[in-house]
TrEMBL record:
Pfam families (alphabetical): T2SS_PulS_OutS
InterPro entries referenced in this protein's UniProt entry, alphabetically: Chap_lipoprot_PulS/OutS-like, PulS/OutS-like_sf
Name of the featured protein: YacC family pilotin-like protein
Signal peptide start-end: 1-22
The species this protein was found in: Pantoea alhagi
Keyword Signal: yes
Keywords: Signal
Keyword Metal-binding: no
Amino acid sequence: MTKGIKVLLLSGLLGFSSTSFALSESEAEDLADLTAVFVYLKNDCGYQDLPDAQIRKALVFFAQQNRWDLTNYGSYNMKLLGEESYRDLSGIAVSNDKKCKALARDSLSLLAYVK
């Protein structure tokens, strides 16, 4: 994951808060997984033109829809979680073309909500 994307995502998520319980470890892992999907689409699937700001908004939207409180987001090592998720995603034994199509089909629609 590029440093710029990480900084944008972190700053956007840190600025978000809601009235629910603090972010749990599994929720943090879910956010890292979703971040890894977008990074994979950008780096490995030809979607390099996806705007980082729109991705950040999509992640915040995803958290809001799940009523997650991100005030303790900084207490998790999101960089490490994201890198692990990216490695896991990269290691899935499916052709890159099939993987890219499935990821795009299942996640790009989230970006439509935050334009």
